[in-house]
Structure of C1q domain-containing protein:
Amino acid sequence: AFSVALTDTRLCVGPNREDSVVKYSSVFVNLGDGYSTDTGAFVAPRSGVYSLALTVYSDAGTPGATLAACARLRQNGRTIASPSENNLQDQEDSASALLVVQLHAGDRVDVALPAGCFLCDNNNHYNTFTG
């Protein structure tokens, strides 16, 4: 089991020109050390059914500014969920995904930040990744 958040301090990541792996640095639980803050990936220690949850949040910071809060939850590089919010009606957006997947020992699960999207967080832990 693991549960991580983007950061404990004010931080925004993106937007980037290319997709990039999100590296969550605030660790709540990391039983078995399956999640790596260095790579941003969870590696399944054994085969089984896993519950995965991802919440993304962003704040454009200025009324009227546009943003896209989005991410891709990936299993071995293949997208399995893409929560996104891009309504352009306010300066804050969030989205979540919760799913159950079959993983094999050694499978890698990570979160990619698509080009053009960005995430913002602080000690309220709006951006979380849990399994």
Observations:
- The chain is about 0% helix and 50% strand.
- The two ends are 6 Å apart (CA to CA).
